[in-house]
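We modelled the chain as a single entity of 490 amino acids. Its sequence is:
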Amino acid sequence: MKLDDKKGGTIVLENFNSTANLASNPGFQSTLTLGSKDVINEKPYNPFEHRQVEHPNSTIGSLVHLLKSSLGSGILAMPAAFKNAGLAAGALGTIIVGFICTHCVYVLVRTSQELCVDAKKPSMGFAETCGAAFEYGPKKLRPWANFARTFVDYALTCTYLAALCVYVVFIAENFKEVLDEYIPDYKLSVETYCALTLVPLVLICQIRNLKWLVPFSAIANVFLVICFAITMYYIFNGLPNPAEREMVASVTQWPLFISTVIFAMEGIGVVMPVENEMAKPEQFLGCPGVLNVAMTVVISLYGIVGFFGYIKYGDDVRGSVTLNLPQDEILAQSAKILMALAILFTYSLQFYVPMEMIWRQLHNSISVRYHNITQISIRTAAVVGSVALAAAFPDLELFISLCGAIFLSSLGLLTPAIVDTVHNWDRGLGTYNWILWKNVFISMISLIALFAGSYVSIQGMIHKFNTIDSSPVLGVSNSTMKAINETLVL
């Protein structure tokens, strides 16, 4: 405590830490005044005014980033999603799931902005927001703050690692489609093509500077646009009568639809970084706002591709609609190769996120002179793990729905619903507690996608695995043994 001045018998105190700490806690809004009325009328903390971003993104730039994060390879899985819902149910379901995903992102960003005021911090990430919601929430839940923060951090890491496995299957199946046409007498299995991606993926994932990954991302974007254009050409060329397709599929297949749409549409991991680096973050939410514009475009495009892709190929549609394109036409083959290369280049960019999280946890416990070899080892092991898992379960459609069910339904739907409830518990849950009931509904959708989607996906994998002739040795399937033998021969 420091006495700095005396005026008219009133003592003005500065740096009174106990009061400062209490005032920073929203549960105790101090009105203590010593010698000045200015303390009462202190201007509320505005996190936007305190953000110091070296290279802030414009509103248009932020819109492009958000579109890029949501418009990826997942859009090509939408026709397969419609197969599990039906034409009419899929169209309506895409709008509903898209609206729920958009609302969850909105809730998360709005909560983060409000918590920045409470914590007097300029910005927060996803994990920080979840931890702060508990830290500044009901007293009984405050001890859970560190758990919430750590859980989201690890869940994000697992989500990106799981997505990498899907990428490996994308690459393998598209290359197989083309090369089988040119090498008909020596057709390799999907598992073998997964194994063949190992060397290029290990090499490209040794790039540690995000700056050097930008060219790969730019090339991948160009390839994706060309592939998407070619695919749409084939989809709209000679569309059959929509009446030939199933309008509403069996309810037992709906969890696969929900999980696939969530996987394709959800970009929860990049939302907070985009908002945190905006030059005018107040334009992220609201109407029209960056979020609403981006998600309107995303939902529309996903619905169009899913709707017409299912009309075109019906129940024969595959996990990536590019796999339904003709095998013997150069244009279709080029789309498949471009798709595989685009995913190959995107892999390294996606790999950067979980690797950054893993390294942040480990680097302090490792001697500096071993940092390089440790980085190489961890990166190699992570790539090998993703390739091995992809080769073990190479069914693209079921893999996508499983990842969406387990990871993105939890992070994209359940976590924002819980955070919103905790944050507003003491602040008020609205008339008739409508915020609580709304979040309960979202949580139920998330849990249905989590448990039912996972169950149906795993059952599908087991069924397909059992249809393959089993090897009497250690229960390893003949296709897996064949893949190992083919790899050794190569």
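As a brief sanity check on the tokenised model: The chain has two domains: 1-42, 44-489. Residues 145-182 form the longest helix (38 residues).
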